[in-house]
Fold this protein.
Amino acid sequence: MDNAHNLDRKRFGAVFALMHRIRAFEEAAIAAQKEGLVLGAIHPSIGQEAVAAGVCCNLQSADLLLSTHRGHGHTLAKGADPLAMMRELFGRAGGTCGGKGGSMHIADFGVGMLGANGVVGANIPIATGAAHGLKLQGSKQIVACIFGDGAINRGPFLEGLNWARVFDLPVLFVCEDNGFSATTRTRDMTAGAGAAARAQSLGIPAVEVDGNDVLAVDAATRTAIDDIRAGKGPVLLHCRTYRITGHTAVDPALYRPADEVEAQRGNCPIARLGAALAMAGMEPDALAATAQQAVEEMTAIAAKARDTDWPDPMAAFSDVQDMGDPRERAF
Amino acid sequence: MDNAHNLDRKRFGAVFALMHRIRAFEEAAIAAQKEGLVLGAIHPSIGQEAVAAGVCCNLQSADLLLSTHRGHGHTLAKGADPLAMMRELFGRAGGTCGGKGGSMHIADFGVGMLGANGVVGANIPIATGAAHGLKLQGSKQIVACIFGDGAINRGPFLEGLNWARVFDLPVLFVCEDNGFSATTRTRDMTAGAGAAARAQSLGIPAVEVDGNDVLAVDAATRTAIDDIRAGKGPVLLHCRTYRITGHTAVDPALYRPADEVEAQRGNCPIARLGAALAMAGMEPDALAATAQQAVEEMTAIAAKARDTDWPDPMAAFSDVQDMGDPRERAF
Amino acid sequence: MATDTYLNAGRRAVIEEMQRDRAVWALGEDLGRGGVFGQYRDLQGMFGADRIADTPISEACIMGAAVGAAMTGTRPIVEMRFSDFALCAIDELVNQAAKARFMFGGQMRVPMVVREPIGMWRSSAAQHSQSLESWYTHIPGLVVVAPATPADNLGLLKSAIRNDDPVVYLEHKNLWGLEGELPDGEHLVPLGKADIARHGDAVTIVTWSGMRHACLRAAEALATAGIEAEVIDLRTLWPWDRETVFNSVRRTGRLLVVQEAVSVSGFGAEIAASVAEALHHELKAPIRRLGAPRIPVAYAPALEDRARVGDAAIIDAVRGLVAPCPAN
Amino acid sequence: MATDTYLNAGRRAVIEEMQRDRAVWALGEDLGRGGVFGQYRDLQGMFGADRIADTPISEACIMGAAVGAAMTGTRPIVEMRFSDFALCAIDELVNQAAKARFMFGGQMRVPMVVREPIGMWRSSAAQHSQSLESWYTHIPGLVVVAPATPADNLGLLKSAIRNDDPVVYLEHKNLWGLEGELPDGEHLVPLGKADIARHGDAVTIVTWSGMRHACLRAAEALATAGIEAEVIDLRTLWPWDRETVFNSVRRTGRLLVVQEAVSVSGFGAEIAASVAEALHHELKAPIRRLGAPRIPVAYAPALEDRARVGDAAIIDAVRGLVAPCPAN
Ligand SMILES: Cc1ncc(C[n+]2csc(CCOP(=O)(O)OP(=O)(O)O)c2C)c(N)n1
Ligand SMILES: Cc1ncc(C[n+]2csc(CCOP(=O)(O)OP(=O)(O)O)c2C)c(N)n1
Ligand SMILES: [Mg+2]
Ligand SMILES: [Mg+2]
């Protein structure tokens, strides 16, 4: 963070607030899960906020995003309404998907968020196809596709990246590498030099960055997106980060040494940006207020979400298909 | 073919004979198909014989091989009986698979040939798993897996190669690159530098050779297999060749200019080896006799295959499964 | 009226719909050279390589990309070459295309048509002969269509392309060369409506795809013996036309379901079970199903034929159905 | 006899068979940390990382590698984590594992067990809740097993591991914690034999997997009203135990099939169609099927419940079946 002194305080103040909001949203969700309010599994991204924030602050609102099972941060960063998201986690009316999807299937097409996904790697071909669709229509929008380090061992990673290069599509592939695939250290199951090397072998330029340094993620994303918007085709960004929490909110993550986690806590991307902002002259009070506001916002949201009605059970029969709609028959 | 003068005449005389036998087998099969004797599609490998011969002459009989829809040459080179193979193409009793498989499903477990495959790329995970099984049992055998250039765009290519490296398995991956995926020029649909670059990005050493130079294929294979037998894990061999015939025997292949095909005919791997053998002192008569013998052998085999009985129709109900065998019920 | 083939009827449907709607495009292997059976012959010349797109051999990405492209406002026609290869893209079809609209709470639709040629085609063996239509009928979110005539291939494919949800469109490889009359001008066949291919009152035969023709041949043979079979070609398997089938069975009291697919858990089981549930008291004889035994399709013709439902089996089954009921 | 869970019963089966036969090994994601539900807890410590193998997230290769490893003399247990993810490996299962023995003319077998946890598990939503057993019953070459009790999970998994052909082994996620008695010593349950979970003569209920328990609860409730239902848990879906089912239906004259899966083209259709064909004249009432409507499984409980067959629906269906037949 050499350039901390000439940091754009306005821009990164907003990024800082966003990162806090992501953290606070997930902490509120984890707390709510302990109370039984979150109904299905959630995969927190605590410690990884710089990837969501650094990538998405470079997307325009018309740009599109595809995410994973660990997508709360990405979705918030793309501009989704946290109340609707929290309602979705709680399975309530007014959830982003009306309570049909839950955490792993949050989508908000209104802000260009085309879906989390419960199948690792499945978002890669879909993102590629979304970019293909945009290109066919002469659109200037681009697509960002975030996936984990574990996803690069699935076939669709190869197929999607090859395709994006062959058709020179406007996609930013982001490998959000937290070192783990569920309980497995990804490096033990991953041959070769990793995501960037694989992308390069497919003719796709790739950049590796410290994924806990939001300034670095931001800068690398901006350069990549400039190229993509200039019509140069896909780019891959490999962001190394660490997952502080378990794979799911209820995973104690005993498969890794406590001191490793402790050391990584000291590498908190939010604290790092806070330090940079402080060095750039932002007041400690202002920094603390940002954190505080985020917590208040998300606490209020969780309270509001818990007071929301359940969806109409008959909604289970809608949005299936027009022809052969199950509502044509009684159940 | 710098080393033509100190060519091992015995070894390459045999390779030369094998290449002629492959060519003659396929020409006999193409002729038989015109007569209606070959029942399903066949995918000739005419012009590609150096890959089959150069790779397989380095395999021991206990080693294993997995092949593709274009597998006659590989299968013959692994030691399968051409009469049983021809019977299989003719759908007759005594075919390698009893007439159940046909050209795309020839397997001869007796000689370590674990199957052609009708699904592009599907042989890669199977080969990888075969090597995994061997390794678990402490076997010294190795596995060779031959696939086309089109197969490297399928997900199982990535998954299989990554796996083979992660578990350090004894597999030789051979990309038999004839430039085409059915009627499509593979390079138009393939991003990056190709098979070798992709393998290298997965930490797998890769070698590119002129696939019409059997001496080069042989030398590269030998080196690769030495490493594999020494426990160094997988290697990929990328052999560039050309498919003289169409995708199937009935494909006129009008999607490529006649002069391109003509030029490639002049690069015949069999003729090239013949020239090298001649330079190494082999008599023109002996060379011609080898070709003649191959044609006679395969013509006789085709004649014999056509005189073979059809399989017992009730064989359709056997070899399905032990529990829940369809023979338990009448049809 | 012009006479043309089932293959060309499908091609005409694609041309007409691509001319009608710029959002429609097709993607698959070898399409620039017409596709593996010539279904797309010359179309790349007419519409350009963007709209008749050649793809890598990447079935998962072909299907997955279509999902994404459908989400961004285009209407892809996915060519899977052989339905067998669609198994390389089943996650993308079943977990993504079919479920997205629902999972995401109806925020959008996934309008795409997946063309998957099915069925036995002499000596194509176990990996190029399957008919897995029953799988798709089991999956919420999918429409399933299986045309049996040139006119239906024209009219149903056009309707499928206009449908706003994913349609699995199963052409039968053995029918490519079948000739029939194609109406001039716009010809749309509604999804979900069966075709009563032959009227009769002795027995109802429900069938689809390639077996329509075997059933009609069998019905003609039976007619010479005075047995008039009604042959219903479902055409759309989901939603299937319960009304037409039930009305017919109410009249005939006898049902034979004929399918090319493996009978065990084939779609015929769904028809048979539905009729057994709804019309038990109106049946004059037990329902009969015909389909393939539970064996992979073999290469050698004599073996392959053991997996085929022949005309004789249909005739026998009908005779059994109309025979006086054994005392019980 | 010891009491243990369905989960531990499966774990014990793996331990016993791995001890018995060195060729047996297991592969899948996270197995070294016990697998996603703890089915393999501590097994890597017992058997080493070679035999309890962690794999990359590469479902296609997990399945395909198992096929190859089975061909070279080992007996892999494939862990698919959720049956939904097996869709990423369907080509390898259906086009390769299931067909290899046949296509290659019986030269070898493919002994592998594919464990695919199925079913609804509170708020797991559309991509983690499916029950696709009917698909597998449709595929020649596959054996399909779906245990419902701890003892059966022990005895059937052991039999599955010893079977020489590919077995799709469907444990129900909601049953992991279910406790029951496990016999001491070797306990093998034969494949293909149903379990008559409850005797009765008013009606035959055929079910499997998680629904066994709902059916038993419903049957107890019905018994208090004097209706004695026979509950048959199929346990193995292919080959299913026709004899036990037919004998029961011959006695009761009434059949209800209860499944958790989508009813349309679910395996229940096969049972219903088979009974309708074979025992039409012995039925005292139309066959009934219960299953999920053709909707994806939703996340919110009230919506998810619309996809569940509840005890009340079973009770109602039985009451309808035993009610005096309406004049017709
Ligand atoms: C195809 C598939 N296989 C397995 C899973 C189960 N699963 C869910 S998340 C996960 C780990 C993914 O690791 P990674 O891609 O690195 O993402 P992270 O969880 O670390 O964000 C696994 C194996 C799945 N959802 N989809
Ligand atoms: C998964 C799959 N997709 C498509 C096909 C149809 N197909 C058969 S061969 C072939 C071309 C394969 O090209 P390549 O791998 O280069 O092998 P070659 O035919 O050139 O030997 C295609 C597309 C198939 N068999 N399997
Ligand atoms: Mg990860
Ligand atoms: Mg090729």
